Amino acid sequence: MGQARLQIEAERSRALRESRKSAYVAFAEGWNLVHGTLGEAGIKLGGIAASDPLEEREERRQAARRLWNEARALHRPLDRLMAVVYVEGPSEMRDAAAAATGALAPHFSAVMAWLHAVDGETETPQHAMERDRTSSDAYAKYLAFLYAAPDAVLPDVRGLMEP
After folding, report:
1. What angle do CA 54, 59, 60 make, to 5 degrees?
2. What is the distance in angstroms between the CA of the first residue and the CA of the last residue of the chain?
């Protein structure tokens, strides 16, 4: 009887680990798409110089706006992926996913502020610095999520050995 119970528990644990792993990978991929797209928008904005021809400046500005809008569209499915992480647990992963997702908001704001400054031809080096800072802060939260994941998917061997 004890061996059968251990086998059932081991199978249940394996299924839980696999389910969690799938949820964490999907969230990480979705988060990375949003962050990467915002980064591309920042690259476009950073490539705009006051001395650029008006047509080239406008082309980069439009590309940055398109990328920002694309990042917003990619963010919507991220909410669902975060909900799956919430359901899968544990609370450390839920908190890490919420922190990583929440850290994208200042990054979105920094890119939009820079875009508005470019629109008004009032951009300064501080816009790029703020975008870089918010990007780094967001990425640090993402890494915290990734670093927490192995603990949530490694086999729990406590209780598998009888005293």
Report:
1. 100
2. 16
Give the model confidence (pLDDT) of 3-31 as tens digits: 877 777 777 777 778 889 999 999 999 99
Rounded Cα gap, residues 146 and 78, in angstroms:
16
Query: Do residues 88 and 23 make contact, with C-beta atoms less than 8 angstroms apart?
Result: yes
Report the 3 state secondary structure along the chain.
CHHHHHHHHHHHHHHHHHHHHHHHHHHHHHHHHHHHHHHHHHHHHHCCCCCCCHHHHHHHHHHHHHHHHHHHHHHHHHHHHHHHHHHHCCHHHHHHHHHHHHCHHHHHHHHHHHHHHHHCCCCCHHHHHHHHHHHHHHHHHHHHHHHHHHHHHCCCCCCCCCC
The answer, as to whether pTM is greater than 0.85, is yes
**C-alpha torsion sign, points 108, 94, 73, 39:** positive
Burial class (CB in 10 A: 0-12, 13-18, 19+), 55: exposed
Check: CB of residue 119 under 8 Å from CB of residue 63: no
Whether the pLDDT of residue 161 is over 70: the answer is: no
